Amino acid sequence: MRTVFKNLVVAVITLEARAVLRKYKPKIVAITGSVGKTSTKDAIYAALARGGRVRKSEKSFNSEIGLPLTILGVPNAWHNPLRWLQNIVDGLFLLVLTVEYPEWLVLEVGADRPGDIRSLAAWLPVDIAVITRLPEIPVHVEFFDSPEAVMEEKASLLDAIKPGGTLILFADDERTAKLAHRLPAPDACIITFGFSKGADVRGEHIKLLKEGGKESWPIGMQAQITSEGVSVPLQVVGAVGPHAFLPALAAAAVGAALHRPLADIVGALGRYDPPPGRMRLLRGLKGTLIIDDTYNASPAATEAALDTLASIGGTRRIAVLGDMLELGRHSTQEHRKLGAHAAKAADLLVTIGFRARDIAQGALDAGMPDKNILQFEDSGKAGAELQNLLQEGDCVLVKGSQSMRTERVVEEIMAEPERAEQLLVRQDAEWKKR
């Protein structure tokens, strides 16, 4: 019965969302990829929000339900049937009345199963499509025939681009860059972003941003953004790692597509606050630093996070890694590869979950001493033990798939647990029940 009700609600709110788009005709920026969608969405929203009515997908509303909810401007009702009915009524009001609707929608588009994006592309008129990184082994590959099938699904967003629209691609990723040859929309233009020399919007001279002296902890990143011969400095405070800059570069590329001055876009990005659980820097107990990357985990993103951990240093570098889910037949191999990577990047490895045992095994095989590897069944136990192990000057990376709830580790070791609701992912009531 619940499935029937859900399917009926999705059908109704999707029809309403399509009708709302036809009536109000907002401009649409749609973002997909396998890494960095939410951060990119938030940065683009910050860049466009100055001087205009802009709405973005809340949190990670990127599914067949999430996109219509964003278009209608109504909340996720979770398991509340009355709230879902209220959402339907609110959608009807948008159609019956004429309201001040957003001029821009910034939408995150995800693909958990085959056909997810293809079905959305059939009715979503996209002005600007942004494709982030498409790694060799993407998340959700378990539900597809192959990694290539995941990439094909992501690429189907190109079919939604309107004539004269814009495709923005991550230049540093070969798989993403190849999509330039598949653009079906006539008269559409292509803009690339990244750190490579050939990117249209380029990040250069990137380095850690520190508040005090040379030995102090980093508070963010700083770099130059260059486009069409113009170079402007930008600081991203609160997150770390080269990939913390990619959302800003994507936002600058959107600005270039709209012929907005680079300095104006960078100025607007001063309001960009990296979302929780995405390489966020938090103060930990006993004078430690936490790199909170607990939103989700894939092989490529976790390797990048480990590289950042290695670059920061500290008295000890501690990697707390949970299961990476939805990898299917690639799971054992990818977890062991990650363990070998962790052995080079970290001094102490803490694993959480059944699949993460292969991370531990990979680290052992790569030469990490057994005494430097701790294994736990769940995040609560890992966090409690980590409290006792921390030493002043430790730098701790915490990362795992959503259902591993590795944010609970961060809550156990953060210096300000009373601010968990503000600083950590999955703090709303529905997640707290799980």
TrEMBL record:
Q: Where would I find the Mur ligase C-terminal domain in this sequence?
A: 277-401
The UniProt GO MF terms for this protein read: acid-amino acid ligase activity; ATP binding
InterPro entries cross-referenced by the UniProt entry: Mur-like_cat_sf, Mur_ligase_C, Mur_ligase_C_dom_sf, Mur_ligase_cen, MurCDEF_CellWall_CoF430Synth
Mur ligase central domain location: 31-77, 100-253
For whether the record's keyword set contains Aminoacyl-tRNA synthetase, the answer is no
Domain of life from the UniProt record: Bacteria
UniProt keywords, alphabetically: ATP-binding, Ligase, Nucleotide-binding
Report what the protein is called: UDP-N-acetylmuramoyl-tripeptide--D-alanyl-D-alanine ligase
Source organism per UniProt: Candidatus Kaiserbacteria bacterium RIFCSPHIGHO2_02_FULL_49_11
